[in-house]
TrEMBL record:
Residue runs in coiled coils: none
Domain LysM: 360-421
Xref: SUPFAM superfamilies: Phage tail proteins (SSF69279)
Cited SMART domains: LysM
Superkingdom to which the source organism belongs: Bacteria
Protein name: LysM domain-containing protein
Length: 422
């Protein structure tokens, strides 16, 4: 790739290091490369694409790639921001999944996907029933099956009383299981990484992006496919009756056919449904010069974009290199606007004033549930029934006033109610 001049004696340089089937081939590859792209994504497998000139017909003859070949590219920048600087983006390990040739001019494109060397992870259909397990136990067994190291970045493991894998590839089954509980999953450099989206949303931004840093941006806001609430059912362990709970509010309701194991399980599934669906509510795409601190699953802050300012989750980072340029396209989903951050801080201050020491009163605000209030004061939503029993008369009478038959064991509470926090 062509070197670009810089304002000191040392030039800015960008180039690739490519290890192909365990052999460093950059010296052989560099005269032919025309462009390279790398996509780092939350919901999809990472991908790479290399476009090459095949004027000597080496790629279509002697160097013909094969599907399943292993590539490990890295992007290297030298003297990019200051003299003597060297930055490296390790893209990971990829398998060649397709390649093509075209003429004229003679050219070759090689595409790779991040996956284990054993392709049966995504292709072979398996059937198995899991009982009295956890998400971590299931993930660990599947990871070991393909020689992957499991990285489980979830603060609390999730119990699974029973789940069935019915003629599904292991990758599809595990992805569906993780999505059910609001977990992300990704294969990267022979590691199977599982993380909690909620925990990642709570991380501090790694970078503040202002308009001067951006060469192009687009913003989109939609309610299509987004929800204010979700209904999830589970079997009451005392009488086996089906109990349906509401997470959120009823304005735009999603009703899932997924069955939960308990109330806590139903709450987590409902919260996960809303969190995943509402990631598309407010989105933004930016084109910026390379920032090595940006990667999928990190958070950034937008500042100077007016009402669009706020905290955003990085959904995808696309690196595009050619002889003339190196740009990054970054896809973001809004976690919270700056105005919403202020509302949350105000709400937290009100909660502290009303008795954040688990002794006193708390005034219900829009969006609250007994579960969320219990989690705030006690650290666990399972204490919600203690709150219900202490405030039962108030909760039931208020539900009747609002036209309900009853409160559904405390599922319906209303803004302005003053609850005793025992």
């Amino acid at each position: 790739m062509r070197q670009e001049g810089w304002h000191t004696g040392n030039p800015r340089r960008k180039y690739l290091s490519v290890v192909y089937n365990g052999i460093d081939i950059w010296n052989n590859l560099s005269p032919y490369i025309e462009s390279f792209s790398y996509e780092d994504s939350v919901d999809e497998s990472d991908t790479i694409s290399i476009s090459l000139s095949d004027r000597d017909l080496k790629w279509s003859r002697t160097w013909l790639p094969e599907k399943g070949d292993k590539m490990s590219p890295s992007i290297i920048l030298e003297n990019w921001n200051y003299e003597g600087e060297k930055m490296t983006v390790v893209c990971g390990a990829f398998l060649v999944d397709d390649y093509s040739f075209s003429c004229p001019p003679f050219s070759c494109t090689i595409n790779g996907v991040s996956a284990p060397v054993d392709t049966s992870f995504k292709e072979s259909e398996n059937t198995k029933t899991w009982e009295n397990a956890t998400v971590r136990l299931i993930a660990n067994e599947i990871a070991a099956k393909y020689g992957l190291e499991l990285i489980f970045e979830v603060s609390e493991d999730i119990a699974v009383s029973k789940t069935e894998q019915d003629k599904q590839p292991d990758s599809e089954f595990l992805k569906n299981l993780c999505e059910k509980y609001g977990l992300g999953i990704k294969v990267y450099s022979n590691r199977l990484v599982i993380w909690d989206l909620k925990q990642y949303f709570e991380k501090s931004p790694v970078l503040t992006i202002v308009p001067d840093m951006v060469s192009k941006w687009t913003y989109n806001s939609t309610i299509q496919g987004t929800y204010t609430g979700a209904k999830v059912s589970y079997a009451n362990p005392n009488n086996e009756n089906t109990v349906e709970i509401l997470v959120g509010t009823e304005e735009r309701l999603y009703k899932t056919n997924q069955k939960a194991d308990s109330e806590a399980d139903a709450r987590r599934i409902g919260e996960s449904i809303l969190r995943n669906a509402n990631r598309k509510e407010r989105t933004m795409k930016l084109t910026i010069p390379p920032k090595m601190s940006l990667y999928a699953t990190c958070n950034v802050k937008l500042s100077g974009f007016g009402n669009l300012d706020g905290k955003y989750f990085v959904e995808k980072v696309s690196h595009s290199l050619s002889g003339k340029s190196y740009d990054m396209q970054v896809s973001l989903s809004c976690i919270s606007r700056d105005s919403e951050n202020s509302e949350v801080e105000s709400k937290n201050e009100t909660a502290q004033t009303n008795g954040n020491t688990a002794h006193g009163n708390y005034t219900v605000v829009k969006g609250d549930s007994l579960w969320s209030i219990a989690k705030h004061f006690y650290g666990s939503g399972s204490k919600s029934q203690d709150l219900y029993q202490k405030n039962r008369d108030l909760i039931e009478s208020e539900a009747v006033k609002r036209g309900k038959k009853d409160s559904g064991n405390g599922y319906f509470i209303y803004p302005g109610m003053s609850l005793i926090i025992p």
